[in-house]
Amino acid sequence: MGDGNTTNRGVTTGTGTSNNNSEKPEWLQQYNLIGKIGEGTYGLVFLARTKSPANRGKAIAIKKFKQSKDGDGVSPTAIREIMLLREITHENVVKLVNVHINHADMSLYLAFDYAEYDLYEIIRHHRDKVNHTINPYTVKSLLWQLLNGLNYLHSNWIIHRDLKPSNILVMGDGEEPGVVKIADFGLARIYQAPLKFLSENGVVVTIWYRAPELLLGAKHYTSAVDMWAVGCIFAELLTLKPLFQGAEAKSSQNPFQLDQLDKIFKILGHPTTEKWPTLATLPHWHSDLQHIQGRKYETNGLHSVVHLPLKNPAYDLLSKMLEYDPKKRITAAQALEHEYFRIEPQPGRNALVPSQPGEKVVNYPTRPVDANTDFEGTTSLQPPQPASGNPVPGNMAGAHAMSNRNVPRPMAAVGMQRMQPQGMMGYNFPSQAGAAGGINPGGMPMQRGMTAQAHQQQQQQLRRKDPGMMQGYPPQQKSRRL
Ligand SMILES: Nc1ncnc2c1ncn2[C@@H]1O[C@H](COP(=O)(O)OP(=O)(O)OP(=O)(O)O)[C@@H](O)[C@H]1O
Fold it and tell me: Which GO terms describe its cellular component (predicted)?
């Protein structure tokens, strides 16, 4: 198509020019751009619909990455990492469907499957409009699916590093209603977040979900940082308030990572080297923390902020996610097996349905779309340049012409080769109490309200209809526990 080249790895490159007087990049013409739906630290997100006959009208979210102030594009390493992200396929991880590079300015556009809701909006709607907590079934189903997707990412050596409610999407009506999709995974590394506290445009990056080891300057960290974030999100789903809401403004006495730590200590108490032996080796422990180490907080722990019956296993799971020592923090695989998921209400696939028969369905607002904003009008895009003399010889040629801005070692280089096929690491929803091993015997997850017998019949029917369809949900493999 025109000046765009679709490479053999699925990257579309183009000059940004087109064969008509529109200034839209050529590749964009495969979409109907509907408008802007959001803006994050690193980019703008647009809603578009595909024009191709096979998938006509399918909603796609296109994320345009902002140019950095020094005009750098995205480095070749970053592009390679992103290409590897296309291999990620899991029901609870948003699908990256296309990667587009605009040659004129080396800007990058990622096209994802579109999800109608995100946890930020769901929580906000409950707090401001419904005036009521989220029902226990919904909380549990959202959390279970989040852990399921995260377990898959961690099993493939991908650490998200920037989990927060706005990155946890939920599908609206359609083929997968109420299904959770983790977004923005693997991208934090490309822009070297979350170690930065300010984004390129000076916007403060939210650090409310950031693990204490990161706040204390750890250079080496593990997937445990994501589990801390999940703990914060779990508490927020239960209370509708951010758990550790550090200051967003910086002052000389109280840089925001210190304030964030202070908020954590206020609820969980101070960490100690007895409980967290490597604490004293973290860069900021001695220097920066002196003036808050002296403070003594009387704390009742999580009970002071999360009000549930005392014996609720939610406390146990939550406190294991918010363990100070990352080595002792619960893993996603372990969390999926926690008692909380075995007691009623059991988690299910459609998270956004009522807990009890007769309970009102919550109608979440759909995403507002700003139809007046398009790619060009919102960014530092340079006017499109004609292609240079050299044709793009396919594949990553465009990427290599870009800036050599260093980004860390490709995160995926090792892990992706070991990537599991879809669902290999996928746990089944816990079955009704009493089923063998407490785990569905394989196949589709049990739907809410379905008896074990009906579920078994559904499995058999599906197997007869489409044997391949069952492959995403193998029986749980105990040996794969982390
Ligand atoms: N695939 C998608 N489908 C629908 N909405 C999406 C999709 N991906 C992102 N969004 C929405 O677009 C908005 C901006 O997302 P983005 O990831 O750029 O920023 P953020 O998560 O708010 O902040 P940050 O960039 O700091 O992570 C959010 O409301 C997010 O829920």
Answer: mediator complex
Whole-model pTM: value is: 0.76
Gap from CA of 243 to ligand 1 centroid (Å): 21
Sheet-wide strand order for 168-170: 117-118, 168-170, 180-182
Residue 174: Cβ within 10 Å count: 12
Which domains, and CATH codes, for the chain? 26-116+368-461 (3.30.200.20), 118-341 (1.10.510.10)
**Which backbone phi and psi does 367 adopt, to 5 degrees?**
-65, 130
- CA–CA gap between residue 201 and residue 282 (Å, rounded): 29
**Relative to the CA of 187, which ligand 1 atom is closest?**
27
Residue count of the chain: 482
Distance (Å) of CA 293 to CA 49, 243, 288: 53, 20, 9
Q: What is the complex's ipTM, to 2 decimals?
A: 0.96
Q: What is the 3-state secondary structure (H, E, C) of 318-340?
A: HHHHCCCCCCCCCCHHHHHCCHH
Closest ligand 1 atom to 59 CA: 3
Nearest CA to ligand 1 atom 12: 38
**In this structure, is the dihedral angle defined by the CA atoms of residues 34, 38, 43 and 45, taken in order, positive or negative?**
negative
The one-letter code for the residue type at 104 is: A
449: Cα separation from own chain's centroid: 29
| Distance of alpha carbon 405 from the chain centroid | 25
Question: 387 φ, ψ to 5°?
Answer: -60, 145
